[in-house]
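Ticket #263: bound-state structure for T3D.
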Amino acid sequence: MAGPSFTDLRYDVDGRVATISLDRPEALNALTVPMKESLLGALREAGRDRTVRAVILTGAGRAFCAGQDLRERLEPDAAPLEVEIRERYNRIVTAMRALPKPILGAINGVAAGAGASLALACDVRIAARGASFALAFGRVGLIPDSGATWLLPRLVGSALAAEMALAGRTLSAADAERVGLVGRVVDDAELPAAARELADRIAAGSPTALALTKRALQRALEATWSESLEFEAEAQAVAGRTADHAEGIRAFLERRPPDFHGD
Ligand code: T3D
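RESOLUTION: The complex was predicted; output attached.
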């Protein structure tokens, strides 16, 4: 079903899955101000819509996203970099991580600059064989932003993150799979179906458990062992009180798939 319309971005809901497609293929989905506002709006919409239980983020055409639109940067009324980062990029990646629904990055092509940061901010990633990951910031005399300096070392280790950030190393999809940055690589033409199949599998989970699991995994990147154990106990108490938990047990005993309603 077609959802609200956004500039240079498509937002579609089909069943329990919302798909957000960055849609400026002629510029490899490079991000402009209206597009960033669209992305924030689409994330808000996915958060608001109770029927949506998982989100796919992907790009139209041959790229996932080439990062900031560099032509826009030269416009006389372009906001100062720090304003653009605080007011838009940081808000986008924060909204992605705060969304209480898993986001699956379907990385269909090159993810460069802030486009790589968007890929990193997804909860789960799968990639097309032709995809690649490049921080690219260094080539234009900038530093990695939009959470990349925080997320990348945690996802691939500090040595490889430093090589990507300092020496501009690009990771192919195969490299990304080998180092655990993506869960799976599929043939380019198979990506949409593979992403949908995985998103459906995620979306079949209990919404409360999905939201709490996402939060627990994020917190674990910063928390101590005892803090993580305590959060698991608190979150499990919440999940254990849901009707979905009772339904899960009934479904197991009746040897059928559970039908979770988010209650
Ligand atoms: O607000 C702020 O500035 C702060 C935030 C900064 C965050 C950032 O993201 S900084 C990093 C910005 N991104 C980049 O530096 C990447 C620039 N792009 C590339 O390096 C290459 O395009 C790619 C490696 C991604 C792909 O290369 P290739 O050879 O496959 O494609 P291409 O021919 O370079 O690009 C195709 C078209 O897309 C081309 O347009 P044209 O000539 O056909 O009209 C190219 O100009 C356009 N394009 C690609 N990336 C951008 C872009 N246009 C504007 N901005 C881009 N980032």
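RESOLUTION NOTES: The domain at 207-254 is CATH 1.10.12.10 (Lyase 2-enoyl-coa Hydratase; Chain  A, domain 2).
TICKET STATUS: resolved
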